[in-house]
C-alpha cells in the first residue's frame, strides 16, 4: 500500500510528499485496510490533521472510510473525508466500454465516416462557391445559407427547433 500526502505549507504553497509504501499481504478487508492506514497516519502524527483521503472504489476501501472516520475524527465530521479517485472511475468506464466493442465500434466507425464525408463535401462546396474553405467567414456564410430556409432559424436571434421564433415572437 502506498501513501502520498498533499498539503499546504505555511507560505500557502501546495506540497506533495511520498510518506510510505508497505507490502500488504493480508486479505484486503475493511478492518485490515483501515488498520494499516491508521498505522501510517499515526506514525506521521496525522490522525487528527487530515481533511480527506482518496481511495479507489473497491468496496473494502469504501467501507474502511467509516472505520477511519471513527478512529481519526477528521475535521468537519468527515463530511469531505472520502474523495473518490477520478482516474479509477474513468478506468472503470473505459474497461466497461471495452467489454462489448463489437456493439459500439461499427456504429462509431460509420458515424466517423459520415462526418468525414460531410466535412469533405462542405469544403468542396465552399471551394466551388468561391469561398476560401479554410476561412471562418466562408463557413459562416455557408451555415447562414443552409439554415435560412429552416422555419426555426431567425436571423440574429438563434435557432429554435420548435420552429417558432425564440422568445415568443
TrEMBL record:
Q: Name one GO cellular component term.
A: nucleus
Q: Which residues cross the membrane?
A: 108-129, 135-153
Q: Which UniProt keywords apply?
A: Membrane, Metal-binding, Nucleus, Transmembrane, Transmembrane helix, Zinc, Zinc-finger
Highest taxon of the source? Eukaryota
The compartments listed are: Nucleus
Identify the InterPro entries for this entry.
RNaseH-like_sf (IPR012337), ZnF_BED_domain_contain (IPR052035)
Please identify the protein, giving its name as recorded: Uncharacterized protein
Q: What is its main location?
A: nucleus
Protein source organism: Dorcoceras hygrometricum
The record's GO molecular-function terms, alphabetically, read: zinc ion binding
| UniProt entry tagged with the keyword Transmembrane helix | yes
Coiled-coil residues:
none
Amino acid at each position: 500500500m502506498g501513501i502520498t500526502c498533499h498539503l499546504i505549507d505555511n507560505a500557502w504553497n501546495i506540497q506533495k510528499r511520498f510518506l510510505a509504501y508497505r507490502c500488504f499481504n493480508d486479505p484486503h478487508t475493511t478492518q485490515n485496510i483501515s488498520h494499516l492506514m491508521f498505522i501510517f497516519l499515526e506514525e506521521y502524527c496525522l490522525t487528527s490533521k487530515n481533511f480527506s483521503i482518496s481511495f479507489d472504489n473497491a468496496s473494502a476501501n469504501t467501507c474502511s472510510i467509516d472505520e477511519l472516520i471513527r478512529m481519526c475524527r477528521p475535521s468537519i465530521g468527515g463530511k469531505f473525508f472520502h474523495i473518490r479517485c477520478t482516474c479509477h472511475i474513468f478506468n472503470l468506464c473505459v474497461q466497461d466500454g471495452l467489454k462489448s466493442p463489437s456493439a459500439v465500434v461499427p456504429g462509431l466507425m460509420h458515424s466517423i465516416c459520415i462526418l468525414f464525408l460531410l466535412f469533405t463535401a462542405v469544403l468542396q462546396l465552399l471551394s466551388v462557391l468561391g469561398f476560401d474553405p479554410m476561412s471562418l467567414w466562408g463557413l459562416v456564410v455557408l451555415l447562414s445559407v443552409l439554415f435560412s430556409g429552416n422555419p426555426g432559424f431567425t436571423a440574429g436571434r438563434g435557432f429554435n427547433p420548435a420552429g417558432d421564433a425564440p422568445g415568443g415572437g
